[in-house]
Amino acid sequence: MLKLKLPYYLFICMITFYSCEKEIELDFNDENQSLAVYSLFSPNDIFTGNSFQVQVSSTQSILDDSESQYLEDATVTITSEQMGESTQSISERLSFHKDGSNQIAYRTDNILPQDGYTYELKVEHENFPTVIAKSFVPAVTEIEVELSAFKKSKENQAPDFTRYFTKASIDIEDNFNTQNHYHLLVWLFYPGIGWYSVHIEEDVLTDQLGADATIINVENSPVFFGAHFNDKEFNGQKKELNFDIAFSIHEEDFPTEIKVQLRSVSEDYHRYFVEGFRQSQAGNNPFFVQTNNISNNIENGYGVFAGYSSYDVEIPFRK
After folding, report:
1. Strands 302-316 and 35-41, how do they pair?
2. Under 8 Å CB-to-CB from 227, ≥6 apart: which residues?
3. What is the overall mean pLDDT for the chain?
4. I need a labelling partner for 152 at 20 to 30 A (CA). Which of 42, 228, 294, 296 fits?
């Protein structure tokens, strides 16, 4: 008798649980969308050009995994004012540009980033709240670079590839009265190809710069790579950094130049890159990632508007 009742009880249980199911609709209100802005500007960086470039898109629903759609009908204005001076501010409405490299941005024709100036960005669109952001261009920090001789290593060497190591040494002057932020990058130039980033030894630099430094190699993130640090450990003294760089190249494909680039960056720039990298390493599940942990200097919106200055030292590549 028990054998006959068991299937009956299972059937009743299934019906009971099924009848308890309730369909719940998740209400993600797209009316709360805001403008998203991305703009890094520098007066002397060959990678970004001399003009302001501002990319404008909108935030997306948590369920929308499509690519960002850049807005072409926004009104974008930049106002410049010299820091410490009572001169009249100058404003320019940016024009929208497209080119063959898929770069879509608003650009200035007259106002160019300069040291010692502060800038205000204003973006208006009929479907979104107006956003405002402010930033400035820090003074250039000059460096001197010394490289030891390149040497061949067989450690972890891939077939048909040669791995070279070298030690770079740079000096950075420190102003004890202010806290400065930096972004260190190393590049190699390949004829016919262009500049490629280089691996920076993480442990060695972290020991010299302190636990607050964030060293990111390009294989971890092509967006945030480089050494991000401040001068808290400098104590008003000149800091000498020594670190190894490493790269793999084919025997017949050697670069011709190596570039060590030190960017003096605003705090908004520094926080955006460091916190953005940590966010990118937290996984891609939108339900468990705290998106509001990334610093944001866009009032009424999201993104970054930040200035920096760049000092480059180029050295011929030696085998």
Report:
1. parallel
2. 182, 183, 184, 185, 200, 205, 209, 213, 214, 215, 216
3. 78
4. 228
Indicate yes or no: pTM above 0.70.
yes
- Given a contact cutoff of 8 angstroms between Cβ atoms, the answer to whether 121 and 78 are in contact is yes
Backbone angles phi, psi at 208, to 5 degrees: -85, -30
Q: Tell me the Ramachandran region of residue 16: left when phi exceeds 0, alpha when psi lies from -120 to 50, beta otherwise.
A: alpha
Q: Which of 256, 265, 264 is nearest to 314 (CA)?
A: 256
Contact between 277 and 105 under an 8 Å Cβ cutoff? The reply is no
At 69-104, the pLDDT tens digits run 788 899 999 999 876 555 567 888 888 877 655 567
Are 179 and 189 within 8 A, CB to CB? no
| Residue tagged 């004012």 (tokens) | 81
pLDDT of residue 211: 82
Residue type, 315: I
**CA dihedral for 114, 42, 147, 230, sign (positive or negative):** positive
309 phi and psi angles, rounded to 5 deg: -120, 155
| Cα separations in angstroms, 69 against 27, 105, 129, 202, 292 | 22, 12, 17, 36, 21
- The full set of domain ranges for the chain reads 33-136, 145-264
Q: How far is 38 from 110, CA to CA, in rounded Å?
A: 20
Tens-place pLDDT, residues 144-203: 888 876 666 555 555 555 666 677 888 888 777 788 999 999 988 888 888 888 888 788
Q: List, in order, residues 6 or more apart from 295 with CB less than 8 Å away.
A: 268, 271, 272, 275
In this structure, are residues 33 and 60 in contact, taking their beta carbons and an 8 Å threshold?
yes
* DSSP-derived secondary structure for 49-83: -SS-EEEEEE---TT--SPP---SS-EEEEEEEET
pLDDT digits (tens, 9 = 90+) for 202-235: 888 888 888 889 998 877 777 888 999 998 888 7
